[in-house]
Amino acid sequence: xxxxxxxxxxxxxxxxxxxxxxxxxxxxxxxxxxxxxxxxxxxxxxxxxxxxxxxxxxxxxxxxxxxxxxxxxxxxxxxxxxxxxxxxxxxxxxxxxxxxxxxxxxxxxxxxxxxxxxxxxxxxxxxxxxxxxxxxxxxxxxxxxxxxxxxxxxxxxxxxxxxxxxxxxxxxxxxxxxxxxxxxxxxxxxxxxxxxxxxxxxxxxxxxxxxxxxxxxxxxxxxxxxxxxxxxxxxxxxxxxxxxxxxxxxxx
Length: 252
Hints:
Blueprint: H1 57-72, H2 80-85, H3 90-96, E1 99-110, E2 119-130, E3 137-142, E4 179-187, E5 190-192, E6 202-204, H4 207-217, H5 220-249
Antiparallel strand pairs: 1-2, 1-4, 2-3, 4-5, 4-6
């Protein structure tokens, strides 16, 4: 499918990786891209990418709230991704996504690993709704062995389907032959639909969901206004909850 430049630890400049996972692959003889020996089979290379993070005020407030929730309700700390920040709504992901495409899951480009159960699912691009996206295919981390089903709520979807309501709060289960509406951002140079926990960024592309999305993005100024209003309300809710918990912890 592609060749690797073993001396530089990455694919040649002529190869344009369209997914984060695709550009982590070992070559077919099992030699990692950094030159070390491997166990002989094609597998995934786990790497750490240097990312500089500047915490926003909302993030700092969320951290404080997480600490307080952990102290007050330690049995619920594992639900922090839903308790603290809350998922982005349909309006927000439509506004914040750099690219939105309708794509069909067709096959594995990389079989699932035994330990994680995840491989690379290849999608054929059927339609680009927002942004510029030239490749006709896209690889995303996921699996098609077990599918927990579509989102049971009617569009617009403000919460992820069942497959993303556990683990790391991202849905990575797909059904072969099914079309999905992928709201994507570019992270560390690669396109991904997993950029907002518990958000409906890769749901089945039902006619109603596609129609709502097209209508929303057709009015960019209205979309921005609504998205900013929702984000502002979430920030205010975080601050109110933080103040409430701080009062509960304050000495009497």
